[in-house]
Design goal:
The protein has helices at about 10-45, 45-80, 85-110, 115-120, 125-140, 140-155, 160-185, 195-220, 235-265, 270-285, 290-305, 315-345, 350-385, 390-415, 420-425, 430-440, 455. The chain has about 450 residues and is mainly α. It comes from Paenibacillus puldeungensis.
Length: about 450
């Protein structure tokens, strides 16, 4: 047992403190989607399906901004370990520029071609019409979302995570209250349906952006951002950022596109499949928050350890973390399996959609174990160790050469059931575990980055 677990109180305190706070932040963030699901599910199934399609574009934006932010976290956490706050500001400036450009491009696409974008996912005109109403408003939230996420990632890299929880909580409360008012028209407010949901989410995104800006201006004592930090551009650090971060951004972009393709495949199997997939994945996101939080916590922990010059600690840390991931996975799968029937009773959807959602959640309760191991192992340990290209290659092989072709074969050629198609979609979560176990335990992923100009002259 001593070989599996390190005996350092500080290690466990750092890992669980970061994981718990980030998980709470994520569960509240996903609660925003859940509130939309529940309220729109009670309004109409076509509204639920339309917003589910529109949210695939939001998910793509989220993956792109997260990709830019994860490169930021890997570099900044090392600078934090080395005590180099000036470089953290420069990296944040680079991440902000990239995120704003990506969000602006995506907003322009949906603003100019909303119907065309949604028609890629389904041929159900009822769902498309509802989705267009939602997109025309929600697109204005993209820039605010990007700004907030980059700043939260910068703060997370220096182990400031509570502000992310506060922001997510405020977003949830505002979104739920405004959904109640604007979707159904309570207390004399207009009944706007999906437009009301979009207005609620846009308002919440603007307010959360203001909160993080106020925090950075008045309360942050670690990084101390100023406007001037975002007016300068460090080309040497940009090259380093691109070397480390571009594989992550490309990997996340491919993953976001893959999720869109998956939704498109299920979308052409009918509105019930769209609604069931939206419900199942939303519930799964909430239940699996500790899985993805552990990956984020690991990235900071490994990066800080390497940056502070304690690379000898990496191997025992990696072995201990793998055991913790497996424990988290088993608990996640059990919770989802036991809670699925109770949760589905909250939805007012057709019997067909409910039956499919139950089947999808059963599948997810099994694959959750594999996800809990391979995601933090690859995106937490391996990426933070410096090998950022491996996850990109892994995604290319599994998602684009195995999962998507198998899924298309199931749905389009063989016309198999939505359940079999969904199993094909999630099969990589188990298959990747074997690759992850071999990769991480060879310990060939530990990389050192070139120092910045400031470090060379010190």
């Amino acid at each position: 047992m001593s070989l599996l677990f390190v005996r350092e109180k500080e290690f466990y305190q750092s890992f669980f403190r970061l994981t718990v706070v980030i998980a709470l932040q994520n569960i509240i963030s996903y609660g925003v989607n859940l509130s939309d699901n529940l309220m729109l599910g009670g309004y109409s199934e076509s509204a639920l399906s339309g917003v589910a399609l529109a949210n695939q574009i939001q998910f793509l934006l989220q993956m792109l901004v997260t990709g830019a932010s994860e490169g930021l976290v890997i570099l900044s956490s090392r600078f934090w370990g080395a005590g180099d706050n000036a470089s953290i500001k420069k990296v944040a400036s680079i991440g902000m520029r990239i995120s704003l450009v990506l969000s602006l491009v995506l907003w322009l696409l949906i603003f100019l071609f909303p119907h065309g974008c949604l028609s890629l996912f389904t041929n159900d005109e009822g769902a498309i019409d509802e989705g267009v109403k939602y997109l025309n408003i929600i697109g204005f939230s993209y820039l605010f979302f990007a700004i907030t996420r980059v700043f939260i990632a910068s703060l997370r890299s220096v182990e400031t995570v509570k502000i992310g929880f506060t922001i997510s909580l405020s977003t949830l409360v505002i979104n739920v209250c405004l959904n109640y008012l604007f979707i159904y028209g309570h207390f004399g407010f207009p009944s706007w349906g999906v437009r009301g949901s979009a207005v609620a989410t846009l308002t919440a995104r603007i307010i959360e952006c203001l909160i993080v800006l106020i925090y950075l201006k008045r309360f942050d004592r670690k990084i101390r951002f100023s406007v001037s930090d975002f007016l300068h551009f460090d080309m040497d650090l940009f090259r380093q950022y691109i070397k480390v971060g571009s594989p992550i951004l490309m990997s996340n972009a491919l993953w976001g596109l893959a999720m869109a393709v998956q939704t498109s495949i299920l979308g052409h199997m009918g509105a019930a499949a769209i609604a069931a997939n939206s419900i199942a994945t939303t519930i799964y996101q909430i239940v699996s928050v500790f899985t993805y939080a552990s990956a984020s916590a690991t990235s900071v922990l490994i990066g800080k350890t390497i940056g502070s010059g304690r690379s000898d600690k990496i191997k025992p840390y990696a072995k201990t973390l793998q055991v913790l991931y497996c424990i988290i996975g088993v608990c996640t799968g059990a919770v989802l399996f036991l809670a699925k029937d109770v949760i589905l009773e909250l939805y007012s959807i057709s019997p067909e959609a409910k039956a499919l959602a139950l089947q999808f959640m059963t599948v997810l309760s099994i694959t959750a174990i594999g996800t809990a191991y391979q995601v933090p192992t690859l995106t937490g340990i391996v990426r933070a160790g410096g090998d950022t290209r491996f996850v990109l290659y892994n995604e290319l092989v599994f998602m684009w050469l195995i999962v998507l072709p198998a899924t298309a074969l199931s749905a389009v050629v063989l016309h198999l059931s939505p359940l079999i198609t969904f199993i094909c979609l999630k099969s990589d979560q188990i298959l990747k575990c074997f690759v992850a176990a071999i990769k991480v335990n060879r310990f060939r992923w530990i990389r050192s980055f070139e120092p910045t100009v400031d470090e060379k002259t010190c």
